[in-house]
Amino acid sequence: MEGHVPAAAVNRLLAQRPVGIRRLAVPGTPMGSLGMEVPGQVLDSYDV
């Protein structure tokens, strides 16, 4: 895992166990991810 990967994406990966997967990553630090919460700021979408 790399970056601020949402728990739902990790759970989906563990449930599906796709063949050949090497990593799961989120580039950058999306606004609203853990540690990046700022009141009044619009949350970024995740590109997992």
Describe this protein's structure.
- This is DUF411 domain-containing protein.
- It comes from Falsiroseomonas tokyonensis.
- By secondary structure, the chain is an all-alpha fold.
- The protein has a domain at 1-28.
- Helices cover 21% and strands 0% of the residues.
- The chain contains 1 helix and no strands.
- It has one helix at 7-16.
- It is elongated and about 40 Å long.
- The protein starts with 6 loop residues before the first helix and ends in a 32-residue tail after the last helix.
- The relative contact order is 0.30.
- The model has no long low-confidence stretch (mean pLDDT 81).
Q: State the separation between the terminal residues, measured CA to CA.
A: 10 Å
Considering DSSP H and I runs of 4 or more, what fraction of the residues is helical?
Answer: 10-25%
Mean pLDDT: 81
Uncertain runs are none
Can you write the helix and strand succession as a string? Answer: H
Number of helices: 1
Find the count of extended strands (DSSP E, 2+ residues).
0
Shape: elongated
Determine the strand fraction and express it as a percent band.
under 5%
Pfam family, one: DUF411
Organism: Falsiroseomonas tokyonensis
Protein name: DUF411 domain-containing protein
Question: In brief, what are we looking at here?
Answer:
With 48 residues, this protein is mostly helical. It has one helix at 7-16. The chain has a domain at 1-28.
